[in-house]
Design goal:
The chain has helices at residues 15-26, 38-57, 63-71, 96-109, 125-129, 163-175, 191-207, 213-221, 229-236, 238-252, 261-268, 311-322, 334-346, 353-364, 389-402, 418-422, 454-466, 482-499, 508-515, 550-554, and strands spanning 7-11, 30-34, 73-76, 87-90, 115-118, 138-143, 152-156, 179-183, 304-307, 327-330, 366-369, 380-383, 408-411, 431-435, 443-448, 470-475. With 631 residues, the chain is α/β, with parallel strands linked by helices. The chain folds into 4 domains: 7-184, 3-Layer(aba) Sandwich (Rossmann fold), CATH 3.40.50; 191-276, Orthogonal Bundle (N-(1-d-carboxylethyl)-l-norvaline Dehydrogenase, domain 2); 294-468, NAD(P)-binding Rossmann-like Domain (Rossmann fold); 525-613, no CATH class. Helix 1 (15-26) links the parallel strand 1 and strand 2 (30-34). Helix 1 (15-26) packs across helix 2 (38-57), helix 7 crosses helix 9 and helix 7 (191-207) crosses helix 10 (238-252). Bound molecules: nicotinamide-adenine-dinucleotide. Nicotinamide-adenine-dinucleotide is lined by residues 11-17, 34-36, 40, 91-94, 102, 119-121, 144-145, 236-237, 240. Nicotinamide-adenine-dinucleotide binds next to helix 1.
Length: 631
Amino acid sequence: MGASLDKVGVVGLGTMGAGIAEVLARSGLDVVGIEVGDEALKRGRGHLESSTGRAVKRGKLSAEEQQAILDRIELSTSFGALSDCDLVVEAVPEQLALKRRVFEQLDEVCRADAVLATNTSSLSVTEIAVSTNRPEQIVGVHFFNPAPVMKLVEIIHTVLTRPEALAVVQDLVERLGKVGVTIGDRAGFIANRLLFGYLNQAAAMYDSGHATREDIDAAMKATGLPMGPLTLMDLIGLDVSLEVCEAIYRETRDRRHAPAPILRQFVTAGLLGRKTGRGFYSYDEPAAATATAEAGTVEPPPQVGVVGSGPLAVALIRGCLRAGAHVRFVAGDTEKARAVATALEQSVAGDTEKAQAVSTALEQSVEGGTELALLAECDLIIEAVAEDTSVKRSLFAAVDDVAKPGAILATTATTVPVIELAAATDRPKDVIGLHLPDPEGELTEIATTVVTATEVARRATEYVTALGKHPVRCRDRAGFIVDALRVPYLNDAVRMLESGYARRRSDRRRDAVRLRVPDRSDRRPGPDRPGPRGGGAARPLHRAPRARVRALRTAGGAVHRGPYFPLSTGSSRTTQPPEDRRVPYDAGPLRTGSSRTAPTPAYRRDRCGPIRPVRSRSPYPERHESAQEPP
Ligand SMILES: NC(=O)c1ccc[n+]([C@@H]2O[C@H](COP(=O)([O-])OP(=O)(O)OC[C@H]3O[C@@H](n4cnc5c(N)ncnc54)[C@H](O)[C@@H]3O)[C@@H](O)[C@H]2O)c1
């Protein structure tokens, strides 16, 4: 049957239908496009002409080819025109009742052996199929937007679909040069099932006041995605997004797909995203759609203290040095301090601009050791030690004793609540979370607690900007922004794999096509992206002599392991800490190994924990104002 496919019908020539009709005609097939009335047909013709016209302007199509494509598409408002089609693709709005009506009509007019396909994003193909007298001839064919560009097509079979009917669609997808994945009939299929859990949670996160829309979008874009989740929902259409979430929620009862209240409010108010000029963003002013971080005044880089000696601490020190800050670092013992100095030295290998900057800074701006007293003059003190609550609490108590008044104390903890560490100090209003989803990247999440002072959050934002990073602000919640959205999404993918619904493809490029995740290797080198890693190896190496590293000169400070905290603070005040700050001696030495392996406190496990059938609870149940400064 696949070989005899000559004429294909498309019902509904809106965003998707027009694109699908164009793709079909481009491959040489005769196409019949059906719309609901003359006005809609005119709009459909307009979509086809402008889309192919853009291709001509870009030199991807000649004027003759454009004309040939348009000539192959017959337009009509009568379903009767579909009577001799081998296959019909339905692309009317995402409403089950409407689609069922359309399929009843198709069943009446189409040849008995014709295959009928639906482009539904989330509705049950089975429920659509049973509205016809030929359920075995019904297939789902889910193109992505824009259809002429996107490679992935999900092909959906129901329990009733005949293999021959499925083969017709599979052959067609191949003929169109698309990447087809064949799957069973589950709400949202693969891509939307994964995508909308993430998108809906981003909407809920915004709705709860956890972070601003710009910061949510900027944070996720910084992970390598082409756009942020709220911008993407505006592009898809908030009505479509609501329908998809509802369909998946109906099937799964997973609260993460229960539409965020704000989504329904937008749709009720007629704010559907780009297509109506307003959604999460307003599109009256084009600049409004661009995610922007809070500007903040450009301050000179602060004097930064870093505690820890693991890879994160080294990355932090290096980043601060590049930005021109003075850095003092404190490691758990002399050996670890030396290791930090060596790691810094190694980072100046190569002749890149960044390496040169670190090399110069190493000579002038870094000092390290084992005494917390080294941090006394720092404006910003960042803790990057083991992911262990008791170790971190002890450290914060000790740093509180040596830091100057007004210094900001920051934790890089990912699983320990910032408020727990703030409570270990006498200056909880000065404590914030600083989370770098990619230690070498620019994005820095600044988490404020219910007691963080407004002025401290503002100053922290300025400091982070001055350190050459991109600050985004959020509240002290598990996963901040990026991990809270990214980890459950990844976990869903694993769960999908484990359930046997979809297979893994090891080819990274094909995965990128399927899930719209940009392949990092595609990124072009730029001023801050000096080509592929290791590319510098062919260049002359430039190494700073060890003797030039001031850090080493001070790295031999006495290491005092007190009864309450493994680091010596060098401060007489800290030798007798207040009773309530003491922790058992066996809290163990400061560990700087991978924090990822640290046990996760139970309260942080609820959303990012291992795969389990229990439905997870949204951490963004409602918008609420509190003493905490709104981000
Ligand atoms: N928008 C997306 O990003 C996207 C992506 C993939 C799949 N889809 C799916 O594609 C389908 C269409 O979505 P869309 O975004 O193109 O919607 P749309 O509103 O842009 O287009 C729907 C078209 O169907 C026409 N129509 C309505 N009733 C009709 C009828 N009885 N007969 C003939 N035509 C009729 C409308 O006039 C309109 O032009 C939906 O099932 C949607 O879930 C959408």
